[in-house]
Each structure stands twice: as C-alpha cells, then as structure tokens.
Specification:
By secondary structure, the chain is of the alpha/beta class. It has helices at residues 17-28, 52-64, 79-93, 116-144, 166-186, 209-217, 219-222, 238-249, and strands at 8-12, 32-37, 69-73, 98-101, 148-153, 191-198, 260-263. The protein is built from 8 helices and 7 strands, in the order E-H-E-H-E-H-E-H-E-H-E-H-H-H-E. The longest helix has 29 residues, at 116-144. Bound molecules: nicotinamide-adenine-dinucleotide.
Amino acid sequence: MTGLLGKVALVSGAGRGQGRSHALRLAQEGADVILIDICADISTIGYPMATEDELRETARMVRRLDRRAVIGVADVRKPEEVAAAVDRGLAELGHVDIVVANAGVLSYGFAWELSEQAWDDTVNTNLKGVWSLAKAAIPAMIERGAGGSIVITSSSAGLRGAPLMAHYVAAKHGLVGLARALAIELGEHGIRVNTVHPMGVDSSMSRDPQVAELFAKYPQLFGPLGESLLPKQGSLQPEEVSEIVAFLASDAARNVTGIQFPVDRGQTART
Ligand SMILES: NC(=O)c1ccc[n+]([C@@H]2O[C@H](COP(=O)([O-])OP(=O)(O)OC[C@H]3O[C@@H](n4cnc5c(N)ncnc54)[C@H](O)[C@@H]3O)[C@@H](O)[C@H]2O)c1
C-alpha cells in the first residue's frame, strides 16, 4: 500500500487506542507522521491518559514500518502547545497533508450534575481541541497549495443523543458544525474536511469501569442505543475505524468533503 507515499499526517491522541491505530495505518500506506498526545492525566476523567512511553512506542512502531515519526507532547485544549508541537513537526517533516483530529475524553453524569470543570475538560478537549489542531496545521497546508484532508473523530454520539454525557454529546455534535464550516472555507484550497462517527470502540475510554456500572444502573436510559443492523455484535476494533480514516485521507475520497461518515453497523440509521 503506497497511496500516501510522500504525505505527512498529523494525528492527535496518538499515544494509544484509535490514534495509534490511525497513525500506523497511515504509515502503512506510506505517510510520515507527527504524533501528538497529552501524556498526562486529566482530573475529571476517570481513566488514565496515554503516557509518554506509549507515545514513544507509537513512534517506534511507525519507524519499524520505515516511515518517519515526530512526537509532540501537547494538550489540545491549549492552542499554544499544539502550535509549538505542529511547528516542530513541520520543521522536521516539511509539510502536513493529512490531519486526523482524534484526541478525545469522556466522563459521566447527568447534565445538571456535571461540574464546570468536567464540562470544560470534555468540551475543551473534544471540540476546542479539534479547532486548535486545525488552526495549527491549516495555514501551512494553504500556503503549500497541495490540498489535503482533515478527518475529525466525532462519535455516534455526534449524530444522536446519549445519556449521562451531555458535554460529550454537545461537543461531538459541535464537531459536525465545525467540519461543515471548515469544508466551506477550505474547499477552494482543495482541502477536504469530514467527520467519522464510530460506535463503541474497544479502547481505554470504553474500558472505563464506570461504563458497565452505569449500563447496569440505568438500563432504561442506555437500552435502545446499541442495536446493530448487521449480524456482527460487540465493539469495533480501532483498526476498523482506521480503514475509514485511511479512505477519507486518500485520493479515493477526492470528491468527498463536508460529510458525516458513521462507522456503526447502522446503529444511527434509525435516528
Ligand atoms: N472508544 C469509543 O467507544 C469511542 C466511540 C466513538 C468515538 N470515540 C472517539 O475516538 C477518539 C479516540 O478515543 P479512543 O477510543 O482511542 O480512546 P483512548 O482514551 O484510548 O484515546 C484517546 C487518546 O487521546 C489522548 N488525549 C486525551 N485528551 C487529550 C488532550 N487534551 N490533548 C491531547 N491528547 C489527549 C489520550 O491520552 C489518549 O491517547 C476520541 O475522540 C473519542 O471520543 C471513541
């Protein structure tokens, strides 16, 4: 697979999970990568974030594929940290063609019981953080004049409601608006912008023990959410989302911009 040979991909949340999988998939297709992760915990999030060792391991895995990797420890809530990390990546790898805005967090609670800090941590990571990554990369992409692809990780919770995560649902819906606006603004530059909307994916986020507890405690709230229209049940593997990310990043999707791409076995088809 050499469709992305000569391209550079910028991936946030690349220390593990879907971000690592996306980075490896894009590297398999030939891209060099700039890998960003916070590598520090967030107090309102009930599971740990990736570590710097994990981020370095993603880079080692990319290099084993004979691709170049630059790592940047940056909190996507902080545009100045993101800009510094992207600038370091640009200095080493020369340009950015693909942006995969994947970093995200999730905490739980009824909307009216969320603390302001919990609201801010989730919305600022999941929505502002995507803007800050795009903001850091877009000027260099426009200046180079070679087009590009921005793939934003939303969620099935960006297409329909979900209980006990109003901040997450609001941010993930917000990404649809951000992507649509960016698609209009960047179309003339040949830069495409699309969102992917995965159902539950096997990762540290979905393995948070609180998930099982809440499903057991509020079956009436969660019950109808999980219906696959296909025979296959259970969570997606990160690699299954990476296939769609790689497609949207590739020239095969050259006529695709401003869309919402569900990866959910049809779960949101009835919404
Ligand atoms: N796991 C699921 O069920 C699921 C379903 C749909 C969508 N998503 C979305 O997929 C994306 C990837 O999540 P995942 O499932 O791989 O979970 P994950 O927790 O394994 O990975 C998230 C990564 O983002 C990093 N990160 C978190 N906050 C950050 C910040 N402020 N700045 C920089 N990096 C930060 C973490 O350190 C971690 O490496 C997220 O946007 C998530 O909302 C997940």
